[in-house]
Amino acid sequence: AGTSSAGSATQQLGSVLSPAFKAAVLIQQWYRRHVARLEMRRRCTWRIFQSIEYACEQDQIQLHNFFSYLMDQFTPRSSKERDFISRMFISGESYKEAELEKYCDYESIEVPDSYTGPHLSFPLLPDHATALLEAFQQKQQLHARYVLNLLHETRKHLKQLPNISHVSTCYSEEVTVCGDLHGQLDDLFLIFYKNGLPSPSKSYVFNGDFVDRGKQSLEILVILFTFLLIYPKEVHLNRGNHEDHMVNLRYGFTKEVMQKYKVHGKKILKMFQNVFCWLPLATLIDQKVLIIHGGISDTTDLDMLEKIQRDKFVSVLRLKKRKESSRKPEIQAINGERESGTDAAGNEAALRLSLQPQSAQAPSTANRLEFSRWLRQTVQEQIDTCRRLVDISESEPEELTYSSMVSLKDVNEPCWTRQEEWKQILDVLWSDPMPQEGCRENKVRGGGCYFGPDVTEKFLEKHRLQFLIRSHECKQEGYEFCHNRKVLTIFSASNYYEIGSNRGAYVKLGPDLIPHFVQYQANKTAHMLTMTQRQGFPVALISRVEESAFRALREKLFAHTSALISAFKAYDADNTGRITLSNWATAVESVLRLGLPWRMLRPQLVRSTEDGMLEYKSWLDDLAMEQRSQEHIQSSLLEVIYRNRSNLETIFRIIDRDHSGLISFEEFQQTWKLFSSHMNIELTDDGINDLVRSIDFNKDGNIDFNEFLEAFRLIKLPV
């Protein structure tokens, strides 16, 4: 009886456990699928952000090519057009030593008694740094006099430093390496809170890209420069690709400075521009670990990098040509032929005339040959003037710097061309690692190289290094190894794309040179959300980041409406206005070339259809802009504006020399004409005039570019 009762009890227990066990298995399977879907969404979102970011950097390179085009080839059609081009180039002119000191004279600026912010006196002390940290936490602003004074002292210090800084772990317990900060002051505060302030026993290397994108780039630079002057042996700063005034025009630092310092902003910007070109290019720890911002190429040579006069490259995106005393006549003949279409004899005559003084008055148009010669002479003189304005001064003697002393000492060493020197710096600041072997042009960013593990191995072996530390790329966890753990990427700006998109990190190296990582997220909201799940990426946070990514992607799609229509029509032979969803994905990638999994992203971008077909014209209409103040503007013009919005903003800031935020109708029209001629965009004068009138909201005859940008926003589509 006992045995039978025990058996029945076992059967009853089994019958009870079986459904529970099955339920547990089902829950586990559901959970795993859920986590897998979240991870897939996270990866897709990440790819969208990175693809769009790199596409924007390609636009920056195209804009650089636009400036080169204006300087080297564009033929002004009138004196107004010549003046317009001159103003664009004058904004980038280089100041000689004495001129810079006079222009940025901080002693002439008085600090009023009403000023309640921090005060600086030199030489700086640790208390000054503490006062700055507290003031910036309370959203106070440092007076312009102190900013200029700090930049003046920083510049003097940087000029004495080599291109490659040398750090030893023998003098401190460890060295902390930080990556991109991009104007995110909260990340810097969090690093100091977790790791401690710079001190004789706490060395730091900050690996470039201190500015742009974030809203507190200036405060970060003030703090870092202050610690650099207080602890010159313990704090080291490398130049990044964003320490470049041409990049700053596009990505926010120029705008930030002018908003915070409306009176002395131009002087502060000019000093920052000069300080940036004196930042060292690399840091070497114990002769074994090289820290550079971007990467290397198969031609990177530390010996050459160490001897380059780095201050000559104010903007790496803008390789300035040296003045040549004897320009080849055949080149001038070609230019003359392009401009006038006359024969060789006429070109030679134009060449001779171009060396004569400019006539005070234009000859009569009745004599067409004489008038043509006069016009070519005027154009050539204006272009030469522009070239002189943007060239680097070579005449005025300056005080000896580390770079100049190296050049004097090694006069018997090989002499490199300016192009070779420029490429060395460009590769170090802009390159990225790739998993494949070899080295190739970095077409994704538009600058620098992609270098493979074989390039890394040869470079490390040649210079007897253990590994490289670089930044330049946002990583989801804040750091990432590649190339058999020989290349380490460190990125310190958390929540870079959106709150919760990524962690920031820094790495600590002791005498054993073994990396120890610290990760963080500066935003409190993101931190609280990430604690709600073990995976650290909750549904609510993914949804927020995902929404931001798809909003940016829709903007990109709208900006290429015309090209998309052409691509869709190629799959619509019968002109039905409908294509398959598969063809939609193929066509979109052929136009945008972002390398995204469009079939996977389709449900977020295209409404589901029962027959698997898409009415593409209707879909494109859904991507249209809000028609508040631009109903009468051509839709094709709207598309062109949106596609080139960032380029136009950069050009606008160059034209707006007084940084007032306003340009005249005529200047705006000239901007469009020059830009459209370079980009082969067909726009009518009537279309441009309609655009001008529509965005002059207060009818004062000037254009506020901030209002112009605000006028063109995409509507948010239901998904």
From TrEMBL:
Signal peptide: none annotated. Gene3D superfamilies: 3.60.21.10, EF-hand. It is an enzyme of class 3 (hydrolase). InterPro entries: Calcineurin-like_PHP, EF-hand-dom_pair, EF_Hand_1_Ca_BS, EF_hand_dom, Metallo-depent_PP-like, PPP_dom, PPP_phosphatase, Ser/Thr-Pase_EF-hand_contain. Its cofactor is Mn(2+). The keyword Zinc does not apply. The keyword Lipid metabolism does not apply. It comes from the Eukaryota. GO terms for biological process: detection of stimulus involved in sensory perception; negative regulation of MAPK cascade. Its EC number is 3.1.3.16. Residues 559-594, 643-678, 683-718 form the EF-hand domain. Keywords: Calcium, Hydrolase, Manganese, Metal-binding, Repeat. It catalyses: O-phospho-L-seryl-[protein] + H2O = L-seryl-[protein] + phosphate; O-phospho-L-threonyl-[protein] + H2O = L-threonyl-[protein] + phosphate. One of its GO terms (molecular function) is calcium ion binding. Belongs to the PPP phosphatase family. This is Serine/threonine-protein phosphatase. It comes from Brachypodius melanocephalos. The gene is Ppef2.
